[in-house]
Amino acid sequence: MSWTPADPMVSINNVHKSFGELKVLNGVSLDVMKGDVICIIGPSGSGKSTLIRCVNALNDIQQGSILVEGQEVNDEKLNKLELRKKVGMVFQQYNLFPHKTALQNVMMAPIKVLKQNKASAKTSARALLKKVRLEGKEDAYPGELSGGQQQRVAIARSLAMQPDVMLFDEVTAALDPETVGEVLQTIKDLAEEGMTCILVTHEMGFAREVADHIYFTDRGVIVEHGPPETFFKNAQDPRTQQFLSQIL
Amino acid sequence: MNKKTDLPVMLPKPVQTPQALSSLSYWHILPLIAAMMIIPSLAFSAAGDELKSPLAVLKNWIPLLLEGFVFNLIISVCAMAVGTAAGTALGLGQISPNNSLRRGSWFVTQFFRNAPWLVLLFFAMFLLPFELSIAGIIIPLPDWFKAIIGLSLPVMANVSEIVRGAIRSLPSGQWEAAESLAYTRRQTLWLVILPQCVKRMLPPWVNLYAILTMATVLASIVGVSEVMTLTGRALAAEGGRPELLAPFYGFVLLLFFAYCYPIARYTLRLEKKFAVIN
Ligand SMILES: Nc1ncnc2c1ncn2[C@@H]1O[C@H](COP(=O)(O)OP(=O)(O)OP(=O)(O)O)[C@@H](O)[C@H]1O
Ligand SMILES: [Mg+2]
Known about the structure:
The complex is a heterodimer. By secondary structure, chain A is of the alpha/beta class. Chain A contains 9 helices and 10 strands. Chain A has a domain at 97-163. Chain A has helices at residues 48-55, 80-86, 102-112, 118-131, 147-159, 177-192, 204-210, 228-233, 238-247; strands at 10-19, 22-32, 37-41, 63-68, 71-72, 87-90, 165-169, 196-200, 213-218, 221-226. In chain A, strands 6-7-8-3-9-10 form a 6-stranded mixed beta sheet, sandwiched between helices. A 4-stranded antiparallel beta sheet of chain A has the order 2-1-4-5, with helices on one face. In chain A, a hairpin with a 2-residue loop joins β4 and β5 (71-72). In chain A, α3 crosses α4 (118-131). Chain B has one domain (54-131, 139-273): MetI-like (MetI-like fold). In chain B, β1 and β2 (137-140) form a beta hairpin. At the A-B interface, α2, β6, α3 and α5 of A face α7 and α8 of B. Magnesium ion is lined by residues 48-49, 169-170 of chain A.
């Protein structure tokens, strides 16, 4: 019964979620294998953010099952902290801690949560900032960085926890066009290193390039999905076709 | 004139906000108070009596009055410290995920925030025992101690609201980012949320302190030997001469103004500074 790397890393099964009267997810299912990069696209309000926030239990679900490395998320006895050590998340609004420098933002959780020793956490944090091409910005406060730089610090901060899966919720949507590229490049590097990624994005070119699989959601259900080549060329459902024609 | 509570200045009054106070310049207020103190003594010297002039009398009493004022300041600092500690705990209680703790903290906050300070002071005076016996040791509870407790109650309730408001004013993304990094709720509060709140809380907190300092004179009504009580006693000792009232109370006003006005200015500066940052 125990989870092996041959099983899906994240397995979402018939998930239902509503906020009060409003039904946001109406039976969503999808599997993500280790090393997979999947992109979720769809119109605004279709429940994309809600879905990925359920994966790290920022939102709870009313019905269905979400397994992360075999661990059931829809469980009252769930240890949320253990789950969140395995699942990293990056937000549209970066959400860096403004009172801490870039370096402190990255090394704080490893020290406080993973109880790593300070010196080694600092060394790894520096290495991570270098990896996201922010060498020299260690001592800058978030307010002193551009949107793209802040978002890359946020990615480094999440990676510092050495997660097995990364969730990205429209991480380029709040950025100036000229800094979108640097953030996408960072994610692409990660994907190539084999990080398991679940991305919500409106960047179709990027999705086509990095995704192993694309899911199209509308009104809380997955309308259509497939590998990028077939998905973009041969969308079957009229809702998908309409969405793609608007956005491409 | 011997019945102290008949003096208008001793009656509970709505406390001025330093905001209004700080828009005045020193040079508006000082001549006013100076005039209040000097004019009666001029009238007096015109009368050409044998008695010492009011200002000369005041001069003799100044050391004692200053002592009383320092006592006011000690009461204000202690009440602020106690009220801030209790108020922070209460404010955190107001955002607790535990329903009964949250409702309880909310109720206590609202109750003490909407009670007149003088009434709370009386309650503390008459409900607290005059001594405590803990494990056979008798600890006396002097009036000034009870006054500190009484004044710290409204401070606590106001600090509770300041803390709650500051926490609520942070974007929810800060909580979510901390949560998704597997911080516990306690770590989130102490490492992420509260450090960012300090800046937001500082101006209203300093403001509250100025209001509290002015409210310490309420302690005279319950017999604590602070500046108003001593002024009353000094006046009685001088035989209750009416022409002494203005210089003596004018002097007390001056003391409070000299202390609270700079605080009000400082609050304004803080507010401007943080308005720029945010
Ligand atoms: N905490 C909440 N409380 C109530 N309703 C919510 C909450 N979060 C989201 N919703 C609602 O759920 C629906 C789906 O929201 P969600 O954020 O998942 O959409 P989305 O697909 O991510 O949209 P977008 O592309 O605009 O980000 C929306 O109608 C939204 O108003
Ligand atoms: Mg969204």
